[in-house]
Amino acid sequence: LAKTTQPISMDSYEGQEVNITCSHNNIATNDYITWYQQFPSQGPRFIIQGYKTKVTNEVASLFIPADRKSSTLSLPRVSLSDTAVYYCLVQIYNQGGKLIFGQGTELSVKP
Amino acid sequence: EAGVVQSPRYKIIEKKQPVAFWCNPISGHNTLYWYRQNLGQGPELLIRYENEEAVDDSQLPKDRFSAERLKGVDSTLKIQPAELGDSAVYLCASSYSGGIDGNEQFFGPGTRLTVL
Lengths: 111, 116
Hints:
Helix content of chain B: under 10%
Shape of chain B: globular
CATH class of chain B: Mainly Beta
Number of helices of chain B: 0
Radius of gyration of chain A: 13 Å
Number of strands of chain A: 11
CATH class of chain A: Mainly Beta
Number of strands of chain B: 11
Structural class of chain A: mainly beta
Oligomer: heterodimer
Shape of chain A: globular
Number of helices of chain A: 0
CATH architecture of chain B: Sandwich
CATH topology of chain B: Immunoglobulin-like
Structural class of chain B: mainly beta
CATH topology of chain A: Immunoglobulin-like
CATH architecture of chain A: Sandwich
Helix content of chain A: under 10%
Order of helices and strands of chain A: EEEEEEEEEEE
Strand content of chain B: over 45%
Radius of gyration of chain B: 13 Å
CATH superfamily of chain B: Immunoglobulins
Protein backbone atom coordinates (compact mmCIF):
# COMPACT_ATOMS: atom_id res chain seq x y z
CA LEU A 1 0.00 0.00 0.00
CA ALA A 2 1.42 3.36 -1.01
CA LYS A 3 2.42 5.81 1.68
CA THR A 4 3.76 9.34 1.45
CA THR A 5 6.27 11.03 3.75
CA GLN A 6 7.10 14.73 3.93
CA PRO A 7 9.25 16.85 6.26
CA ILE A 8 7.09 18.29 9.01
CA SER A 9 8.41 21.83 8.67
CA MET A 10 10.83 24.02 6.74
CA ASP A 11 12.10 27.57 7.17
CA SER A 12 13.15 29.93 4.42
CA TYR A 13 13.75 33.62 3.71
CA GLU A 14 12.10 35.86 1.19
CA GLY A 15 13.57 35.58 -2.29
CA GLN A 16 15.00 32.11 -1.78
CA GLU A 17 14.11 28.99 -3.73
CA VAL A 18 12.37 26.34 -1.64
CA ASN A 19 12.34 22.64 -2.45
CA ILE A 20 9.95 20.34 -0.61
CA THR A 21 10.34 16.61 -1.14
CA CYS A 22 7.67 13.95 -0.80
CA SER A 23 8.78 10.33 -0.53
CA HIS A 24 6.38 7.73 -1.85
CA ASN A 25 7.00 4.01 -2.21
CA ASN A 26 5.27 1.67 -4.66
CA ILE A 27 4.38 4.35 -7.18
CA ALA A 28 3.66 3.11 -10.69
CA THR A 29 4.66 4.91 -13.86
CA ASN A 30 1.20 6.34 -14.45
CA ASP A 31 0.35 7.38 -10.89
CA TYR A 32 -0.18 11.11 -10.66
CA ILE A 33 1.46 13.34 -8.06
CA THR A 34 -0.23 16.58 -7.10
CA TRP A 35 0.79 19.33 -4.71
CA TYR A 36 -1.61 21.52 -2.76
CA GLN A 37 -1.18 24.61 -0.60
CA GLN A 38 -3.30 25.24 2.47
CA PHE A 39 -3.72 28.37 4.57
CA PRO A 40 -5.35 28.33 8.03
CA SER A 41 -9.13 27.95 7.97
CA GLN A 42 -9.16 27.33 4.22
CA GLY A 43 -9.35 24.28 2.01
CA PRO A 44 -6.28 23.15 0.08
CA ARG A 45 -5.54 24.88 -3.20
CA PHE A 46 -4.02 23.19 -6.27
CA ILE A 47 -0.44 24.12 -7.14
CA ILE A 48 0.87 21.66 -9.71
CA GLN A 49 0.44 18.10 -10.99
CA GLY A 50 2.47 15.59 -12.99
CA TYR A 51 3.40 11.94 -13.36
CA LYS A 52 6.90 12.00 -14.83
CA THR A 53 10.10 14.03 -15.25
CA LYS A 54 9.41 17.74 -14.89
CA VAL A 55 6.39 20.00 -14.99
CA THR A 56 6.48 23.79 -14.68
CA ASN A 57 3.73 26.35 -14.39
CA GLU A 58 3.63 30.01 -13.45
CA VAL A 59 4.08 29.39 -9.72
CA ALA A 60 6.07 26.19 -9.26
CA SER A 61 7.96 23.27 -10.73
CA LEU A 62 7.52 19.58 -10.02
CA PHE A 63 10.41 17.17 -10.41
CA ILE A 64 9.89 13.41 -10.51
CA PRO A 65 13.05 11.28 -10.85
CA ALA A 66 13.14 8.13 -12.90
CA ASP A 67 12.89 5.81 -9.88
CA ARG A 68 9.67 7.62 -8.84
CA LYS A 69 10.42 7.07 -5.16
CA SER A 70 10.06 10.79 -4.48
CA SER A 71 8.91 14.03 -5.99
CA THR A 72 10.04 17.59 -5.31
CA LEU A 73 7.98 20.75 -5.34
CA SER A 74 10.13 23.76 -6.17
CA LEU A 75 8.95 27.27 -5.31
CA PRO A 76 11.15 29.97 -6.87
CA ARG A 77 11.78 33.17 -4.93
CA VAL A 78 9.31 32.69 -2.10
CA SER A 79 7.58 35.60 -0.41
CA LEU A 80 5.97 36.00 3.00
CA SER A 81 2.62 35.06 1.48
CA ASP A 82 3.95 31.60 0.63
CA THR A 83 3.92 30.73 4.34
CA ALA A 84 1.48 27.82 4.41
CA VAL A 85 1.24 24.04 4.67
CA TYR A 86 2.10 22.11 1.52
CA TYR A 87 0.70 18.64 0.82
CA CYS A 88 1.63 16.05 -1.75
CA LEU A 89 -1.14 13.82 -3.04
CA VAL A 90 -0.59 10.54 -4.83
CA GLN A 91 -3.30 8.98 -6.98
CA ILE A 92 -2.83 5.23 -7.41
CA TYR A 93 -3.85 4.09 -10.89
CA ASN A 94 -4.10 0.36 -10.23
CA GLN A 95 -6.20 0.87 -7.13
CA GLY A 96 -9.00 2.64 -8.92
CA GLY A 97 -7.46 6.05 -8.52
CA LYS A 98 -7.06 5.80 -4.75
CA LEU A 99 -6.04 9.15 -3.24
CA ILE A 100 -3.37 9.41 -0.56
CA PHE A 101 -2.35 12.73 0.98
CA GLY A 102 0.91 13.29 2.78
CA GLN A 103 1.05 14.68 6.31
CA GLY A 104 2.00 18.13 5.08
CA THR A 105 5.05 20.40 5.32
CA GLU A 106 4.65 23.65 7.19
CA LEU A 107 6.71 26.26 5.35
CA SER A 108 7.62 29.43 7.20
CA VAL A 109 9.03 32.29 5.11
CA LYS A 110 10.84 34.98 7.05
CA PRO A 111 11.70 38.51 5.95
CA GLU B 1 -17.73 31.59 -10.78
CA ALA B 2 -18.69 30.36 -7.34
CA GLY B 3 -16.42 27.87 -5.66
CA VAL B 4 -17.35 24.83 -3.65
CA VAL B 5 -19.88 25.81 -1.00
CA GLN B 6 -20.10 24.05 2.35
CA SER B 7 -22.39 24.58 5.28
CA PRO B 8 -22.32 25.00 8.13
CA ARG B 9 -18.82 26.40 8.62
CA TYR B 10 -18.78 25.46 12.29
CA LYS B 11 -20.75 22.96 14.33
CA ILE B 12 -20.59 22.10 18.01
CA ILE B 13 -22.54 19.11 19.25
CA GLU B 14 -22.56 16.75 22.18
CA LYS B 15 -21.47 13.17 21.72
CA LYS B 16 -24.10 10.72 20.56
CA GLN B 17 -25.95 13.47 18.70
CA PRO B 18 -26.38 13.35 14.91
CA VAL B 19 -24.84 15.92 12.59
CA ALA B 20 -25.01 16.60 8.86
CA PHE B 21 -22.82 18.54 6.49
CA TRP B 22 -23.85 19.88 3.10
CA CYS B 23 -21.78 20.51 0.00
CA ASN B 24 -22.57 22.19 -3.30
CA PRO B 25 -19.82 21.52 -5.86
CA ILE B 26 -18.72 23.74 -8.71
CA SER B 27 -21.21 23.66 -11.55
CA GLY B 28 -20.32 21.05 -14.15
CA HIS B 29 -18.03 19.04 -11.86
CA ASN B 30 -19.15 15.44 -11.88
CA THR B 31 -16.78 14.19 -9.20
CA LEU B 32 -17.27 15.02 -5.55
CA TYR B 33 -15.07 14.14 -2.58
CA TRP B 34 -15.50 14.21 1.18
CA TYR B 35 -12.38 14.36 3.31
CA ARG B 36 -11.73 14.46 7.02
CA GLN B 37 -8.77 16.49 8.23
CA ASN B 38 -7.54 16.13 11.79
CA LEU B 39 -5.44 18.88 13.32
CA GLY B 40 -1.91 18.87 11.95
CA GLN B 41 -2.58 16.11 9.43
CA GLY B 42 -3.34 15.79 5.76
CA PRO B 43 -6.85 15.24 4.46
CA GLU B 44 -8.10 11.66 4.53
CA LEU B 45 -10.56 10.64 1.85
CA LEU B 46 -13.87 9.38 3.19
CA ILE B 47 -15.81 8.94 -0.03
CA ARG B 48 -15.57 9.83 -3.72
CA TYR B 49 -18.55 10.13 -6.04
CA GLU B 50 -18.63 9.93 -9.80
CA ASN B 51 -21.99 11.56 -10.52
CA GLU B 52 -24.40 9.68 -8.22
CA GLU B 53 -22.19 6.63 -7.76
CA ALA B 54 -19.89 6.19 -4.79
CA VAL B 55 -16.75 4.77 -6.43
CA ASP B 56 -14.50 4.75 -3.36
CA ASP B 57 -15.94 4.57 0.14
CA SER B 58 -13.33 2.23 1.57
CA GLN B 59 -12.33 4.71 4.31
CA LEU B 60 -15.87 5.66 5.32
CA PRO B 61 -16.76 4.30 8.81
CA LYS B 62 -20.04 2.85 7.67
CA ASP B 63 -21.31 2.02 11.13
CA ARG B 64 -21.89 5.70 11.86
CA PHE B 65 -21.15 7.66 8.70
CA SER B 66 -23.37 7.90 5.64
CA ALA B 67 -23.35 10.03 2.53
CA GLU B 68 -25.56 10.67 -0.42
CA ARG B 69 -25.38 12.60 -3.62
CA LEU B 70 -28.82 12.81 -5.09
CA LYS B 71 -29.09 13.84 -8.74
CA GLY B 72 -25.30 13.93 -8.97
CA VAL B 73 -24.97 17.50 -7.69
CA ASP B 74 -25.25 18.41 -4.00
CA SER B 75 -24.08 16.01 -1.35
CA THR B 76 -24.72 15.43 2.33
CA LEU B 77 -22.43 13.69 4.81
CA LYS B 78 -24.01 12.48 8.03
CA ILE B 79 -22.64 11.16 11.30
CA GLN B 80 -24.94 9.34 13.69
CA PRO B 81 -24.12 9.10 16.50
CA ALA B 82 -21.11 11.40 16.78
CA GLU B 83 -18.16 10.42 18.95
CA LEU B 84 -15.47 12.57 20.55
CA GLY B 85 -12.94 11.33 17.99
CA ASP B 86 -15.03 12.73 15.14
CA SER B 87 -13.93 16.26 15.98
CA ALA B 88 -12.15 17.43 12.82
CA VAL B 89 -12.56 19.59 9.74
CA TYR B 90 -14.70 17.99 7.04
CA LEU B 91 -13.71 19.11 3.59
CA CYS B 92 -15.67 18.79 0.39
CA ALA B 93 -13.98 19.01 -3.00
CA SER B 94 -15.05 18.67 -6.59
CA SER B 95 -13.37 18.13 -9.91
CA TYR B 96 -14.43 18.06 -13.53
CA SER B 97 -13.28 14.49 -13.86
CA GLY B 98 -12.38 12.03 -11.15
CA GLY B 99 -10.70 9.72 -13.56
CA ILE B 100 -7.61 7.84 -12.61
CA ASP B 101 -5.50 9.95 -14.96
CA GLY B 102 -5.14 12.92 -12.67
CA ASN B 103 -7.34 15.95 -12.04
CA GLU B 104 -7.43 19.24 -10.15
CA GLN B 105 -9.62 19.22 -7.09
CA PHE B 106 -11.28 22.41 -5.88
CA PHE B 107 -11.87 22.45 -2.15
CA GLY B 108 -14.48 24.18 -0.08
CA PRO B 109 -13.59 25.99 3.17
CA GLY B 110 -14.60 23.01 5.28
CA THR B 111 -16.85 22.47 8.28
CA ARG B 112 -15.15 22.45 11.63
CA LEU B 113 -16.90 19.93 13.88
CA THR B 114 -16.40 19.91 17.63
CA VAL B 115 -17.88 17.03 19.59
CA LEU B 116 -18.16 17.64 23.34
